[in-house]
């Protein structure tokens, strides 16, 4: 007959021992709830109610179901009409630009930065971004603030012609401050295989066309914020060179190029695809700057010579350089400096491309040309104006020449 150990009795408020001998917390009369821990489910539901009409406005006939399902559904029956359909996908966030939005308590524009960073990577290969999802992590769900963020995302998706089919808002008390949040998103696009754009399309003699940015867009804000903090400038400071406050300039939404680029594809390449396309490819100028991102979409052995004198630096970039004493090489490796997207086209298509972009209200200009790379020694010599390969892509090269206008 085995011996048994009597259970230890404890009075309220004293520690007890578990069977393993590990002390258990004291029993108290405290009631701990999810809301008490900092997560307000009702606030999340309220945020959905405030945003759902904006989300629905992005839906087309391919979107199935409504807002709030476990998964977004998108009818891809159109794939049956493709000879060889390719799916393209991209994911990104906004980065520390959200700190500017939070400091200014303006949240309905940051969605354009998110959507631009995601869908404009997809159109680089000629793919149409079909649908997008978003993710918002915050310290506390303030329904109106979350709804403003999502309304901005939805508005940008409408500009891009992309359906916003789902998303998630997560409350992370203790990890993020009450007024802090971060946003991320992902999108999926579609392109016919023989219409795919990329380095293998580019030829010597092709023309490089720059498309104007709307401002800093969403890259380099760690540098920009460091500069303005060093200068002691407040976000509500009126800046004559900018014609508005510093904060308004820094919060200027990213231009979403997706619809412009796809229109240009249709205009220059038509629906058929094929071995030779007049529009060879695009480069989305994000982190790393113009030269590094352009080099990613060039084949080995070719060099794009880009002439700085073909455009003037917008005032905000001059301001950052002057306030922080930032070297030009560092500026060019970090910020877009007025160029948000680049198109590479056959020389005979350059005029048509410029006309089409102008018709859509987009400032664009010829900024360079592609030729043979005869500057192999430039990289070894540490020439800051010469970039070959970037972000893991051992592709072509870019050389920046002359001074900005």
UniProtKB/TrEMBL annotation:
The keyword Membrane does not apply. Residues 9-21 have a biased composition (Low complexity). Residues 203-374 form the PurM-like C-terminal domain. Residues 87-191 form the PurM-like N-terminal domain. Residues 1-22 are annotated as: Disordered. InterPro entries: PurM-like_C_dom (IPR010918), PurM-like_C_sf (IPR036676), PurM-like_N (IPR016188), PurM-like_N_sf (IPR036921), PurM_cligase (IPR004733). It is an enzyme of class 6 (ligase). Pathway: Purine metabolism; IMP biosynthesis via de novo pathway; 5-amino-1-(5-phospho-D-ribosyl)imidazole from N(2)-formyl-N(1)-(5-phospho-D-ribosyl)glycinamide: step 2/2. It catalyses: 2-formamido-N(1)-(5-O-phospho-beta-D-ribosyl)acetamidine + ATP = 5-amino-1-(5-phospho-beta-D-ribosyl)imidazole + ADP + phosphate + H(+). Its EC number is 6.3.3.1. CDD domains: PurM. It is found in: Cytoplasm. The keyword Cytoplasm applies. Keywords: ATP-binding, Cytoplasm, Ligase, Nucleotide-binding, Purine biosynthesis. Belongs to the AIR synthase family. NCBIfam families: purM. HAMAP family: AIRS. This is Phosphoribosylformylglycinamidine cyclo-ligase. It comes from Sinomonas flava.
